[in-house]
Write the structure tokens for this entry.
Amino acid sequence: MPYNKRFDGRKFDELREISAEVGVIPNADGSAKFKIGKTIAIAAVYGPRVLHPRFLQDPIKGVLRCNYNMMSFSGSGERVRPGPSRRSKEISYLTEKALEPVLDLSEFPSAVIDVYIELLQTDAGTRCAGITAAALALADAGFPMKDLVSAVALGRIEDKIVLDVSKEEEDFEGGMADIPVAMLPRTGEITLLQMDGLVTLNELKEVLKSAKKACEQIYKVQKDALRARYLK
Amino acid sequence: MSNDIVTNHVINLIDKDVRLDGRKLDQFRDIKIEYGVSAKSAEGSALVKIGKTEVVAGIKMEVGEPYPDKLDEGTIIANVELLPLSSGEFESGPPTIKSIEMARSVVDRGLRESKAIDFKKLTIKKGEKVWTILIDAYSINDDGNLADAIGLATLAAIKDAKFPKYDEKEEKIDYKEKTKKSIELKELPIPVTVLKIKNKFVVDPVLDEENAMSARLTVTTIEDGRICALQKGGILPLTPEDIEKIIELATKKGKELRKLLK
């Protein structure tokens, strides 16, 4: 079954509508909301603060602790049970690894920086939306950062490389390859890369090229959101 | 911490009928209700802001077997999560007593005891298949009075909800397809929390006021003025006279809040 036209009518290298806003949670040290299509991620940063229990502390550098969570009504089927799952734990861990390279944690020995990511509504690409929101929240909190982090999920459906996969595409009958990518937009370095499915090296090259272009667009929206808050 | 200083300040002010933000003792902050904030995923959803306090609530619906003692009734299950995202005071982990208390006393009891939802109407096939309404509320930012915000948000989310399509032959729900059928709310049980600070009574407290309370009473009322749930909290006792005053105040405020949901 050839995939010649996307379910939602987008071009194969077209993002869904994206928007970002920072400073959405007054209590947090930094916060942001990022929407991509119908996926909505909210991120809040608390810290640096004292890490308990103490044995988790690192006297050399601070600890970045991320927590990804889908609100129980945010899934596309039945209610998602509250509390951590294997999936959410893995995503939390990958989010930490995606964000850590832009931070200088040596400034915060023995402390923790907590990043909480909540998904209000989902339509695929949730870990990427979470990472993008979290990067903004860290910037909003005022951490010195080498770069922002921008992320997007791509896929291969039949012979097409598709940018910013939707849930409908994720569930494509003939199967697909799902490839979330996070990038430092200025250098193009990749901090998250996963793949479920089958691709050739050439297809993957095309994926990364498309990801770079998309992350540049996302980066622009992120920068605009920060400007809107701080350069009035 | 400087909390003692703030607390004493709050108490001294309230004693003179003055609040930190200039409100009257019986005055709520601005309230904003937004419906359908998770419309793609949830059967119903709503966001409520009371001042800087923000809560979202969502409804999912499932089909299951009825309880053996209530074969022709569906049911509700209420859950509240006080997210660490919403406050530096909240921690990750299993539900705390604070969130359990809110789920039970603010959401569940109000809806159940007011008979706001006719559980019999949730029956698909007696003894076999009934709807369960799963109500989840999350704090997004805690600047005091989460309980009343959660009460409003859950009611708004229920009002927003549409049943998903249920295929009786296949015994499957098609979550992608919503019907036009709403959950009929026969009552709007509105919880209003009143704090006793010194000898004064205060509604819609901000955090600094919550820290200064000697006692609180959450009073849930329905349209005709009857009370459908009560929950006392705080360290100090209340006199019967206190309780009478609190209930009068909560009933009056409940009427105002009910209008926002109509």
About this structure: Strands of chain A lie at 18-22, 30-36, 39-50, 63-70, 111-121, 150-157, 160-163, 177-184, 189-193. The first strand of chain A starts at residue 18 and ends at 22.
